[in-house]
């Protein structure tokens, strides 16, 4: 190995210097924080609306409202549900991820895909399937069962991704230090997954705070129920907003808690440097047990909804061959969902970049603010969009772009999480190096950063598309007059008790989501070491 | 015309002052090395020169271009300064060839990329992705990538630290040779003194946000201006001395000064371990003055032995270090220490060129 | 005989009602032909044809679709139909305020309309339209008009309750006999009018006691759809719903799947509540004439006949139009609760909240 080469003698400094004029502070320096803040501000609009409305409540009225006997009970319900479902999702999500990534469980690839599949089934379909098949599923435990079986993939996917990428060396060292498998699992593997676990738990918990529909079906009242009552029975937006503020405060608590947990042991997960995957841990005699557990999980989370849909497709007497309009509905739904996915993903880039490049308190605050919107019930977000659009964007009101904007406001955190976690894998120095090679910041973004976080962008796109394609509340309020989506049509039939007629729409929604989940699984888990090959000089 | 001049550079990270008035001049075509412990601000200095970090005050000039005067900054991408970070930071999504061609106009890539692959000894490996290359190969690609656009100045931030010792030694020699052939001006920062001495025409020792001394490796090694620089370049024995014209009276006797100080007062002299010889009682006859000491520890290092001895004299409260070619007597043996060759007197505290006041005293007290 | 049987019944209530019935009878001749008259005015005048109105509808979507289609065919007025949850739409209208793109709002129950009325968001309905239906079925201020009616009923699982056991007074549901066997959906907009009537008849204290007992006895469901399905499955023995939910369930389940039936509360009981669905024109509408024409159409004979034959299973309000599929005609029911009597339902709501039935 030698560096000697005749052609190397080309002098480095023969090129005449370019203009020596100083550039001054480049406008680009402020562009990123500014863009990030504008995005955050737009996404946080619903918070502003809620605060504005709540501000109209007098002190006495507020006290009376919060002093109602049910308020405390419902806060208790929400806290109990959030605790139970988050804890169970953590256990199941981590357990399933560990089994498919670190052990010699048979059919691991199949199980990986199946374990992510509940994401393809809309939450209200989950609820409706359970209720129509097993009416005894209700109350706290029923609601927990349904919620866990639809939400645990939010933990499973990021944890599996970390396990696939992180260094197996640490676990091996721990073994050599005399720790048994369980001890290693607890003391090494689990801490390695801490940020991923915390991120997943955050999404699960925030979702639970604002969710109403599924619980109504399961006859479990939560704090969001109280907000709905104010909106829908009392038409009292001020009271509803005061209650929503309580929800936001809870969300803030959860967001800060998550940040604290992540910071506790630093966020550096060592990447696999050896290029050698961990040797699968032999399950030995526990293999049948593990197989059974995995089958039970997948059977419950995917099997039940699929069975229920099939049952109603066959049995419901209102079942007719869905009209040809189901295809145009599918296209409409796809159009909105993909639009929302593209916008949310693109908007997540500046916010994620800002938080990644500058680890300042302000950047963290901007990032955390956008998570709070996630805790608001859909109707509050939708009404906020109505509120601002009718005042400041009247020509767009009830036009497709506004519905897309509503979806973005609702699902932005999902995109941000995905983009942020893939950025965390990118060494900061690559951007510096690219600029030292004479590349402008925007070109650096296009040629280096974005290609590197493509998997994250793919995951963000899939996640938002997936969720938006089944959204109902905001769709009803914001859609262009006269257009329907699969979800609104499903809703129309189920409110008319025509479950059979509704079933095909649920089935199509689920079928549409399957490719998105496959993409999501591949993007999230895809081996970090094999990157898209690109030709030099193109 | 692409020498680097840094004048009175100050910078901070948040509330911490990182640089407190750095002055550094690297001539055109010179290979300079900034040597200092981690946290001394050397990487920040590099990042300011590269344009990744703003200076608070001070100026950075390359050739006749003012790049940063504390108020206005040239953008990093306009500076034409190559940068090789610690881990190479190759673009993982691009092949070696695409990495090297990254900073080149399209039209030039086809011709220049193979040339550079050749230069760094990686001909034929252009199609590999970074993860298919070894650590050393990755660093070579990083170097080739930085050299490709023919920068005015090349900055290397501990580029060999992630490599194993043998490879590190080999690669730094090759890189230095390649840079010299190319006539490049380059600044390398490191905490590894061997790397600094092997690589550089000019070494600048940095400490606490300032450059305490800069000069040729020989100059710094033999004529440090303070105790810190003396120790930064290798192990040193610092002895109190009474200076008198071209002589210094020390516990080892009266020794000739390498350079007369023109001072007649108390000071400090430095003896490198190779200047000390350990004698058994029988050999002391030819020496006018010896210092009694006890062997405290010995270490065989292949090419020589490192010996720590505890002197018996008053006022010498730390051990002396000597390197000997022959096997030293066992630990606990009583020996006589003698000094050979002229010694270097550290400038008086106030007279030190860049050393902060009081530094010297602190070091001697230790 | 012009007024029809149902308005005769109502006329027994008061002299005022008689005179109103008379007014209605008089207007009916006009109403009877109003479908054609709207059509002809649209066809010849051309002033409305080609206009487009936006309708926010909380009503049964398929029924509304048929009505809109027929209206457009007759008048040439295009309709953009926006179907949704009536409460969400009402909230949307409240937020939109005067900038609303909506011309007409069709609700399932009076409280949503009354809320909009109180906020001054509705325009007065044309007198002839109001006159087409019994006066008590519309807003007392004339801001919205009643279109159809639904009746509170007791649905019970035939395997768990016999016809004789079915309650005739809603008060009976508070008895210990129903403990754990009852289902209610108090968050549904249909339920609070029952409570409002109870307050009117029995006073606040008695109603509160009753609600407390109800809370102890009943399982709470999120919607009438869930409740009627639960009764049919036998999760609970019986529950209070609006009549049409059971008919829709019957259609969905087919004869073999129906394990439930309905009974009605005695006349005069708060449970025997007949509640109207109504529609109003937004004050901010820029197509007042077309919007009013739509309301006029909705109470016309063709429209009411569509309602009488649709899957929404609501009672048409126009005299002379009946839905023969319903097990008993509306005139056997109790009086239609006047919107004035029901108000905006706030008091009922607060009472339900205070006992913890609602949050």
From TrEMBL, chain A:
Membrane topology: Multi-pass membrane protein
Limits of the ABC transmembrane type-1 domain: 75-256, 330-520
Biased composition (Polar residues): 1-11
TM stretches of this protein: 28-52, 72-99, 111-133, 139-163, 196-220, 240-262, 289-314, 334-356, 368-390, 402-423, 444-468, 497-520
Protein keywords: Cell inner membrane, Cell membrane, Membrane, Transmembrane, Transmembrane helix, Transport
Annotated stretches, region: Disordered: 1-22
Localization terms from the record: Cell inner membrane; Cell membrane
Presence of keyword Chaperone: no
Family: Belongs to the binding-protein-dependent transport system permease family.
Protein name (record): Iron ABC transporter permease
Annotated organism of origin: Streptacidiphilus pinicola
Organism classification: Bacteria, Bacillati, Actinomycetota, Actinomycetes, Kitasatosporales
From TrEMBL, chain B:
Protein name: ABC-type quaternary amine transporter
GO cellular component: membrane
Keywords, ordered alphabetically: ATP-binding, Cell membrane, Ion transport, Iron, Iron transport, Membrane, Nucleotide-binding, Transport
Gene3D superfamilies in the record: P-loop containing nucleotide triphosphate hydrolases
EC number, UniProt record: 7.6.2.9
Record domain ABC transporter: where: 4-233
InterPro entries registered for this protein in UniProt: AAA+_ATPase, ABC_SmlMolc_Importer, ABC_transporter-like_ATP-bd, ABC_transporter-like_CS, ABC_transpr_FbpC, Mo/tungstate-bd_C_term_dom, P-loop_NTPase
Class in the EC hierarchy, top level: translocase
Record carries keyword Nucleotide-binding: yes
CDD domains: ABC_Carb_Solutes_like
PANTHER family: SPERMIDINE/PUTRESCINE IMPORT ATP-BINDING PROTEIN POTA (PTHR42781), SPERMIDINE_PUTRESCINE IMPORT ATP-BINDING PROTEIN POTA (PTHR42781:SF4)
GO MF terms held by the record: ABC-type ferric iron transporter activity; ABC-type quaternary ammonium compound transporting activity; ATP binding; ATP hydrolysis activity
Superkingdom assignment: Bacteria
Classification lineage: Bacteria, Bacillati, Actinomycetota, Actinomycetes, Kitasatosporales
């Amino acid at each position: 190995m030698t560096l000697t080469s005749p052609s190397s003698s080309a002098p480095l400094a023969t090129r005449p210097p370019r203009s020596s004029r100083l550039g001054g502070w480049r406008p680009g320096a402020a562009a990123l924080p500014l863009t990030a803040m504008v995005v955050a501000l737009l996404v946080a609009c619903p918070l502003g609306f809620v605060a504005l409305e709540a501000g109209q409540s007098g002190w006495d009225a507020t006290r009376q409202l919060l002093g109602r006997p049910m308020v405390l009970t419902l806060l208790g319900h929400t806290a109990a549900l959030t605790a139970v479902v988050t804890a169970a999702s953590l256990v199941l999500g981590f357990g399933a991820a560990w089994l498919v990534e670190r052990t010699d469980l048979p059919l691991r690839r199949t199980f990986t895909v199946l374990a992510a599949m509940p994401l393809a089934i809309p939450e209200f379909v989950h609820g409706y399937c359970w209720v129509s098949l097993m009416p005894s599923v209700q109350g706290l435990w029923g609601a927990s069962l349904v919620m866990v079986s639809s939400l645990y993939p939010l933990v499973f996917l990021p944890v599996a991704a970390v396990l696939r990428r992180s260094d197996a060396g640490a676990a091996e060292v721990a073994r050599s230090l005399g720790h048994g498998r369980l001890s290693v699992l607890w003391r090494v593997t689990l801490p390695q997954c801490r940020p991923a676990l915390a991120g997943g738990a955050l999404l699960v918990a925030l979702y639970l705070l604002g969710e109403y529909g599924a619980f109504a079906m399961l006859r479990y009242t939560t704090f969001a129920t109280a907000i709905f009552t104010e909106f829908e029975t009392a038409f009292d937006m001020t009271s509803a907003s005061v209650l929503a503020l309580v929800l936001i405060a809870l969300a803030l608590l959860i967001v800060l808690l998550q940040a604290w947990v992540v910071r506790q042991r630093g966020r550096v997960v060592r990447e696999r440097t050896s290029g050698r995957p961990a040797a699968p841990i032999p399950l030995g005699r526990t293999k049948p047990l593990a197989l059974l557990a995995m089958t039970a999980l997948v059977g419950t989370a995917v099997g039940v909804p699929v069975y229920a849909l099939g049952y109603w497709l066959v049995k419901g007497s209102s079942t007719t061959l869905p009209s040809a309009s189901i295809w145009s509905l599918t296209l409409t739904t796809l159009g909105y969902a993909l639009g929302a996915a593209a916008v949310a993903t693109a908007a997540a880039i500046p916010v994620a970049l800002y938080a990644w490049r500058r680890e300042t308190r302000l950047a963290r605050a901007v990032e955390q603010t956008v998570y709070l919107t996630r805790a608001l019930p859909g109707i509050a977000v939708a009404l906020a969009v109505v509120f601002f659009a009718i005042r400041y964007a009247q020509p767009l009101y009830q036009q497709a772009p506004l519905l897309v904007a509503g979806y973005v406001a609702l699902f932005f955190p999902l995109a941000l999480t995905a983009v942020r976690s893939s950025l965390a894998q990118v060494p900061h120095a690559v951007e510096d190096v690219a600029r030292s090679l004479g590349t402008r910041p925007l070109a650096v973004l296009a040629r280096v950063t974005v290609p590197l976080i493509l998997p994250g962008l793919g995951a963000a796109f899939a996640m938002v598309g997936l969720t938006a394609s089944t959204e109902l509340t905001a769709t009803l309020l914001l859609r262009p007059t006269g257009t329907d989506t699969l979800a609104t049509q499903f809703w129309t039939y189920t409110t008319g008790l025509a479950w059979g007629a509704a079933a095909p729409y649920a089935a199509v929604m689920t079928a549409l989501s399957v490719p998105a989940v496959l993409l999501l699984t591949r993007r999230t888990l895809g081996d970090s070491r094999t990157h898209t090959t690109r030709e030099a000089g193109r | 015309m692409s020498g680097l001049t840094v004048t009175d550079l100050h910078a901070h990270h948040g509330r911490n002052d990182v640089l407190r008035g750095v002055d550094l001049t690297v001539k055109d075509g010179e290979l300079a090395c900034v040597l200092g412990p981690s946290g001394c601000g050397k990487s920040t200095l590099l990042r300011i020169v590269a344009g990744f970090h703003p200076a608070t005050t001070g100026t950075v000039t390359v050739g006749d271009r003012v790049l940063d005067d504390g108020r206005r900054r040239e953008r990093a991408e306009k500076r034409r300064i190559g940068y090789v970070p610690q881990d190479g930071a190759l673009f993982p999504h691009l092949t070696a060839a695409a990495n090297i061609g990254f900073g080149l106009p399209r039209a030039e890539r086809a011709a220049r990329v193979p040339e550079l692959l050749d230069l760094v000894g990686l001909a034929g490996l252009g199609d590999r992705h970074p993860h298919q290359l070894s650590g050393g190969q990755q660093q070579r690609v990083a170097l080739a990538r930085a050299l490709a656009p023919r920068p005015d100045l090349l900055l290397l931030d501990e580029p060999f630290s992630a490599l194993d010792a043998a490879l590190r030694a080999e690669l730094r020699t090759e890189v230095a040779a390649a840079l010299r052939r190319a006539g490049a001006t380059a600044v390398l920062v490191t905490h590894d003194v061997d790397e600094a001495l092997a690589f550089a025409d000019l070494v600048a020792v940095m400490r606490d946000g300032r450059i305490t001394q800069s000069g040729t490796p020989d100059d710094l090694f033999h004529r440090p201006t303070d105790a810190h620089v003396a120790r930064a370049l290798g192990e040193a024995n610092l002895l109190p001395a009474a200076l008198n014209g071209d002589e210094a009276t020390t516990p080892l006797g009266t020794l000739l000064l390498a350079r007369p100080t023109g001072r007649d007062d108390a000071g400090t002299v430095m003896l490198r371990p190779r200047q000390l010889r350990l004698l058994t009682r029988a050999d002391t006859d030819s020496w006018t003055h010896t210092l009694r000491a006890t062997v405290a520890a010995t270490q065989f290092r292949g090419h020589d032995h490192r010996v720590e001895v505890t002197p018996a004299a008053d006022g010498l409260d730390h051990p002396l270090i000597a390197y000997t070619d022959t096997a030293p007597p066992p630990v606990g043996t009583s020996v006589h220490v003698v000094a050979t060759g002229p010694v270097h007197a550290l400038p008086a505290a106030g007279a030190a060129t860049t050393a902060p006041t009081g530094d010297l005293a602190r070091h001697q007290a230790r | 005989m012009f007024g029809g049987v149902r308005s005769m019944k109502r006329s027994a209530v008061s002299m005022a009602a008689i005179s109103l019935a008379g007014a209605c009878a008089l207007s009916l001749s006009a109403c009877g032909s109003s479908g054609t008259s709207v059509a002809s005015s649209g066809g010849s005048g051309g002033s409305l044809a080609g206009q487009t109105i936006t309708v926010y509808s909380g009503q049964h979507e398929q029924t509304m679709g048929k009505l809109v289609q027929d209206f457009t065919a007759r008048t040439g007025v295009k309709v953009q139909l926006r179907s949704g949850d009536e409460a969400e739409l009402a909230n949307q209208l409240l937020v939109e305020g005067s900038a609303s793109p909506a011309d007409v709002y069709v609700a399932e129950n009076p409280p949503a309309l009354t809320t909009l009325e109180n906020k001054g968001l509705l325009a007065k309905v044309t007198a002839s339209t109001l006159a087409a239906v019994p006066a008590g079925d519309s807003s007392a201020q004339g801001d919205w008009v009643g279109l159809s009616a639904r009746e509170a009923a007791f649905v019970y699982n035939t395997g768990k309750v016999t016809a004789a056991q079915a309650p005739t007074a809603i008060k009976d549901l508070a008895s210990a006999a129903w403990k754990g066997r009852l289902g209610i959906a108090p968050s549904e907009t249909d339920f609070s009018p029952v409570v409002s009537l109870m307050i009117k008849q029995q006073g606040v204290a008695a109603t509160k006691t009753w609600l407390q007992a109800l809370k102890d006895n009943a399982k709470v469901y999120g919607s009438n759809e869930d409740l009627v399905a639960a009764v049919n499955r036998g999760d609970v023995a019986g529950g209070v719903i609006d009549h049409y939910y059971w008919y829709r369930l019957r259609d969905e389940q087919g004869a073999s799947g129906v394990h439930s039936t309905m009974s009605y509360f005695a006349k005069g009981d708060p449970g025997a509540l007949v509640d109207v669905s109504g529609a109003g024109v937004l004050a901010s509408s820029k197509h007042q004439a077309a919007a009013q024409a739509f309301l006029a159409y909705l109470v016309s004979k063709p429209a009411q006949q569509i309602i009488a034959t649709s899957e929404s299973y609501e009672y048409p309000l126009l005299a002379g139009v009946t839905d023969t599929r319903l097990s008993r005609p509306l005139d056997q029911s109790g009086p239609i609760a006047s919107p004035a009597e029901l108000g905006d339902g706030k008091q009922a709501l607060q009472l339900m909240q205070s006992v913890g039935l609602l949050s």
